[in-house]
Amino acid sequence: MSTYPNAIAWFEIYVDDLARAKQFYSTVLGISFQDVPAPDGSDDLQMSFFPCDPDPAAMRVGGALVYMNGARVAGVPSTSTMVYFPCEDCSVEASRVEAAGGTLHKPKFPIGEFGFCAICLDSEGNTFGLHSMQ
Predict the structure, then answer these.
(1) d(C-alpha 24, C-alpha 124), whole Å
(2) Residues 63-98: pLDDT tens digits?
(3) Which of 15, 16, 96, 113 is most buried when burial is the number of CB atoms within 10 A of its CB?
(4) Which pTM was predicted?
(5) Per the domain annotation, does 5 fall within a domain?
C-alpha cells in the first residue's frame, strides 16, 4: 500500500504550440503559467508550469504544458489520460472554452454525490475535464 496521499504526483499535457495552449488554459481557467527553461538549454523541450504550491509537504499535484520535439504527431488528439481541473462551478469555465479556441464536448452534467463535470477539447486537441461540487 502506498504512503502517498495523492494518486497522481504530476501531469503533463503535450502540445503542438506552447503559446497557443498557454493562452487557451489562461483564458479558460483564469490562471498564469511559469515558463521553465529546458534542462539542456535546447529548443526541443519547452515547459510551462500550471500554478501549484511549491511546498513538497503540501503534497499538491502539479503539472505542465509541454512541447517536446517528436513527442506528438501534429494534430493528433491525445485522449489516453483525462486531467480534471477544479472549479467553483464548471459551467463558468466551460462557457469560455469555445471562445478560447477549444471545443465543448459535453456541457456540465451531474456525477451524483461527486458533483458535476464538463468534458472539453483544448486548442491542441487534448481532452480534459472540468470538475465542481456545484
Answers:
(1) 9
(2) 999 888 776 665 565 555 789 999 999 999 999 999
(3) 15
(4) 0.80
(5) no
